[in-house]
Amino acid sequence: xxxxxxxxxxxxxxxxxxxxxxxxxMEHPKRAVVPVSQHxxxxxxxxxxxxxxxxxxxxxxxxxxxxxxxxxSPFTGKVFKVEETLDSTGFRRMxxxxxxxxxxWMEGIDLKTEIKRDIDLSPEEIVxxxxxxxxxxxxxxxxxxxxxxMVPEGKKVEYLIINGVECExxxxxxxxxxxxxxxxxxxxxxxxxxxxxxNKCIIGVENNxxxxxxxxxxxxxxxxxxxxEPLKVQYPxxxxxxxxxxxxxxxxxxxxxxxxxxxxxxxxxxxxAVYEAVQKNKPLIERIVTVTGKxxxxxxxxxxxxxxxxxxxxxxxxxxxxxxxxIINGGPMMGKALVTTDVPxxxxxxxxxxxxxxESNRKEEQNCxxxxxCTTVCPQGLExxxxxxxxxxxxxxxxxxxxxxxxxxxxxxxxxCPAQIPxxxxxxxxxxxxxxxxxxxxxx
Length: 444
Known about the structure:
By secondary structure, this protein is an alpha/beta fold. 29% of the residues lie in helices and 20% in strands. The chain has 14 helices and 17 strands.
C-alpha cells in the first residue's frame, strides 16, 4: 500500500496537461528586470548602479543578513536603472533593470555539458558555495538553502528528504526536471548529503509520475544511501511536514521545524541548482517554469532566465489571455493571481497558470452549515471555520491560541467548503495580525 500523510488532505483534479512537454530554452528578452528580493528574508543590497556593465553570472546584489540570498545577473548588458518596479505580488520592490546583450559569462563558470560526478569540496566548502551562488528553495518558498545546512549546536540530522511530489494541480516543472536532469539532480542530492553529513536520503515522488519513479530508482542504484519512495497522490503532500510524515511516519510538533525530528527537506529543483552551483560554479540565474491552463494552446515547460517578462512566456505558449479570467503565479491551490503579466520571472516562479473565466469566478458565499469538512481536510489539524471567525475579528491573541501560525495556506479548506466561504482569505488576515503581534512582543 502506498504511503501518504495521516492528517487531512484532498485530491483535486490533476490537470497535468504539460507533463509530456519537454523542456524548451526560452529566448532572451531585450530588457530584463531582476528583483533584489527573490527569497524569504531580508532583501539583498544592490551592488551596481545605472550605466554599469554586467556579465552573465556576476553578483549584482548581496544578501548581507543571516536569512537572505545573493542575486546574480542572468544576462550580459548595461544597467538601465536600479529602481522600484512592480513584481508578481502587486507591490513595488527594488530591482536591477538590464538592457540585454549577447552573453559574456563570468570567469570560472563551467559551461561544458559533461556531467561532473566527483565531489571534491568539504561539507563547509559546499555550504559556502551554495551561499555564494544564491541558491534558494525552488519549490516556491524560496528559503535560502545555505541556512538549512547551518545546523545549530545540539541538533542532529538523520535524514535528507527530497521533495519530488509536485502535488499542485497543473504544474509539471519538477516532473520534467526529474526526467531530463535526473543524473545531475542525483549528484546534487549526494552533495547535499555530504554538506549535511548524513548517509540516508529518501526521495518522495507521487505515484502519478511512474516514469520519473522508474528512472530515479534506476539512477539511485549507483548512489549509496539514496532511496526512492512512491507515494499516494494526495494534496498537499509537498508540504515539508506532510512529506516527512508520509515517508518516515514522524510528525513535526506545532511550532517546530523538520530539524526537530531529525530531517532537512529540499525540492528536486534545489538539488539541480546545487549541482550547478557546486560542480559548475554557476549561480541560480534560471529555472524551469510551467505555462499551462485550458486557455493555453501549447502547455509548455520552459527553461527561463530570471528577469524574463511573463508576457514572453505566454506568447511562446500561445496563451489566450483574453479568454482567461485569472492568471496565477504558481498552481491553483497556493498560487497568487497576477495583477499584470508585465512582471519578471523570479527564483520562485514554478508556473504560470491561466484559468478560464467560468472556472476562475468565485461563487456566492453562503452561510456556514457546520459540516466540519474544512476541519477534516486540514493537514495541520486546525479548525479553519474557527480561524476564519477570529481572523475576521482580527483577534490576534485568540488566533495565536488556536495555532493560526501553523496554517500552511494550502487552501484545502476552501477547496472542500460547500458554502463557498473564502476561509483562507480571512485566515491570512488573522496570520498577518498575529505575526505582527508576535514580532512586537519579541522586540520588548
